[in-house]
Amino acid sequence: MRVLFRGALFGALMAVMAPPAPGAAATLQENNDKMLRQMQAARNLSNAEMRRIREVFAGSRFIGQGNPAITRHPMTPQEAAKRVPGDPLKYYRNSRFERICGERYMVPLYDPATEQPEDAEVCADMFEYPNVPMVYPVVWVRAKEAAELCWAEGKRIGDAHEWEGASHGALTDPDYFFGMSVQAARQRHNAKYRSSARYSIGKQWRAGVCATGSFKNASCNGGGYNGCGSNTYPAGSFPKCRSPLGVYDIDGNAAEHMNLPMAPDEMASRGSRKLGVTEMKGSWFIWDTVRAHTHWSRWRAPFWHGSRVMAGHSHRNYHLGFRCFKDVK
Question: Is residue 2 part of a domain?
């Protein structure tokens, strides 16, 4: 029997996220409190982990699901839930992956040509942070804050090659052209992989498959907090927006922070907390309207708003979020 949106757990979590009464305007803090409670319940995070997470949120006046005064999400969680069969919190869980990753809503990264999921040494969040189905992604987060939020729950920010492998459908060996400038290395990398270019959803981009049909506020002409609404969709609203390895929304919804190491000792995948420079990956929630730049899976961007990942001034904006990765062996 098909059950639409009536799972007991999902119903309870949606009650936690109930919108304010008509005429009432929720504050960013109120929205964040609701989101973090839902995150803890859905992913079974400990109180100690939540304390560390809340400390990072408390250090910013901007981190959240968008400026509530101007954000206008094109789809509610309730509407999004009707797009998947049954309870979304159960639909997106995978017991095999949970055994491998030790976490809910994570997927193992590996090379299907030579490996099985059980061979994976790293897992990726299935969705953008807070990594909960039917919840809007967190944006207005600096790269430094993204790294700290991942560390707060025993995960880490991903290296560029890991994000690319999650999107493309095969995690292969790192390829960074160390010793070059950011731009020179980018050109070498993109030239090497251009012939095998594909998106997370296939060789050809298909409008409407991912969360890319929203709108940009008329007042958003400079990227400012008071003019640009984070008009994103709930995570998992587009079940077909799935990479071959099972990662969702890696195209569409929020763009994502990544670590681009410039030397071996800056690789998050080797345990570094020094980290490299910023890289912004993926398309965003108005991609089918505004074709801003190339975005095939292994494409590396120009050094837009570039800084060290751990710089206090690292970039943040209304459509930029992140997802976490976790070492499992």
Answer: no
Residue 255 placed within a domain: yes
Q: Name the token pair of 25.
A: 């305007």
**Cβ–Cβ under 8 Å, residues 100 and 306:** no
Dist CA 123 CA 150 (whole Å): 13
Which of 262, 306, 1, 19 is closest to 136 using CA atoms?
Answer: 19
In-domain check, residue 3: no
- For residues 71 and 304, what is the distance between their CA atoms, to the nearest angstrom? 24
The whole domain housing 44 covers: 8-327
Residue 1 belongs to some domain of the structure:
no
The total of structural domains in the chain comes to: 1
Whether the Cβ atoms of residue 158 and residue 88 lie closer than 8 Å to each other? no
- Which pLDDT does position 1 carry in this prediction? 33
Residues 234-293: pLDDT tens digits? 999 999 999 999 999 999 999 999 999 999 999 999 999 999 999 999 999 999 999 889
Burial of 18 (0-12, 13-18, 19+ CB in 10 A): exposed
Are 125 and 135 spatial neighbours (Cβ–Cβ below 8 Å)?
no
